[in-house]
Amino acid sequence: MQWWREARFGMFVHWGLYSGLAGTWEGKAVATKGGMEWIQQRVKADTGTYAQAALPLFQPTPGFAQEWAALAKAAGCRYLVFTTKHHDGFALHDSKAGDYHAGARLQRDLVREIVAAARQQGLRIGFYHSVIDWHHDQYAYAQSKQLPHPLKGLPYPNGGRDHAAYVGYLHRQVTELVSGYGPVDILWWDYSAQDFQGDAAWRAGELMALVRARQPAIIMNNRLYRTPEAGWAGMGTSGYLPRLEPRYGDFVTPEQHIPATGMPGVDWETCMTLNTTWGFSAHDHAWKSDETLVRTLIDIASKGGNYLLNIGPKGDGSVPAESVKSLRAIGAWMQVNGEAIYATQASPFDKPAWGRCTQKRLPDGGTRLYLHVFDWPADGKLVVPSATRLRGAKLLAGGARVAASQRGDTVTLTLPAQAPDPIASVVALDLDGPAGR
Ligand code: GLC
């Protein structure tokens, strides 16, 4: 897990047939908020009708993947997780199983193109893979009341369904993905319900075993299960528990949510959107500000978690201009302050009023605290609780020394009048030993 814990920041990519539809169905906007990667379910279209409308609009340009990888690198991301198959069931690789994949429909292996581009930029690779499938005609959707399906409540259009046949197909496609594209660093499953999960729904134990057998170093999330032992308190988007037994996965996955005090004792990663949808929508303009995005990255790191920030490219693979702008803004901040995020640990003290804190042990046994100042003090004074002997302090931007004094277990810093950065200015404070908690 070490590379992953040190990485702290990754790019999530939701891209597939739904991206060409862009949140529009029969000429009308389906919604201005919410996941448009779910459009097939939102309009209750069967897979044939959906594919007929979506396929013509899914025309990836030749170099689309290079743009993604370059953007992830420019943003300071260390890994890239993309949708090899989402709930609509369309697979982006050239598969020998079935015919609902890019090989059969576009004569391209989009997974191979994306993996190559990401490796070229030195990024670690993650495969998001949906176990839910709204295309496969043996996926027995009536067996779960909690999981979504466009035909939910309707009888199976093809009579009875042998779910085991679908699970066999799922295992075949996953085997192809972890056997044919070189080292894969992350498997990001999605998702299970309390009434449909684990071995009963996906033969999950076998699935994880076949992946580990072919990719011994791979990291997997906890979404093949929906039990407390796997970090789930329920179905809601705040139902996360700081608990994960190794056989259920390697990290917990809060979604659009940051645990108030982190999740001490488990590895966790918060995934979030730039607006309100994972898949591209032409109708969703609720873009988060650069300030919100940078401070969210800092907040998550200060609580010991990873941030997986999503982009939703269009049907041709191009990235919306607003997303490019936001990721470049994060990258500009990381250029100066990346040291205060990568390979750091959670704050040794509770959330200070002026911002957040991350820390890093120094090779000589000292500790460097990174004080991420959101609200630059008008009186130039910054107070930090620390009983550990002070060594010195400096601004990370430019390296200028910062005057510091210590009385008992309180350090007082005298800051220059002007904040180096309007979003978050980092002061590096060195202590002569472990920081107290
Ligand atoms: C939710 C959304 C799904 C998305 C996932 C990403 O489960 O329903 O569409 O892929 O979150 O975390």
| Radius of gyration, taken over Cα atoms and rounded to an integer in Å | 23 Å
Spans with pLDDT under 50 lasting ≥5 residues?
none
Strand line-up of the largest beta sheet: 7-6-5-4-1-9-8
Oligomer category: single chain
What small-molecule ligands were found?
alpha-D-glucopyranose
Number of helices: 12
Strand content: 15-25%
Number of strands: 16
**What is the percent of helical residues?**
25-40%
**Major sheet details:** 7 strands, parallel
* Overall pLDDT: 97
Order of helices and strands, N to C? HEHEEHHHEHHEHEHHEEHEHEEEEEEE
- Which structural class is indicated by helix and strand composition? alpha/beta
Shape: elongated
**Span between termini:** 24 Å
Question: What's the short story on this structure?
Answer:
With 437 residues, the protein is an alpha/beta fold. The protein contains twelve helices and 16 strands.
Please characterize this protein's 3D structure.
This protein is an alpha/beta fold. 26% of the residues lie in helices and 19% in strands. The protein has twelve helices and 16 strands. Strands 7-6-5-4-1-9-8 form a seven-stranded parallel sheet. It has a four-stranded antiparallel sheet with strand order 10-11-16-13. The chain has a three-stranded antiparallel sheet with strand order 12-15-14, with no helix packed on it. Helix 5 packs parallel to helix 7 and helix 5 packs parallel to helix 12. Bound molecules: alpha-D-glucopyranose. Alpha-D-glucopyranose is lined by residues 14, 35, 37-38, 190-191, 255, 271, 278. The site of alpha-D-glucopyranose has 9 residues, from loops.
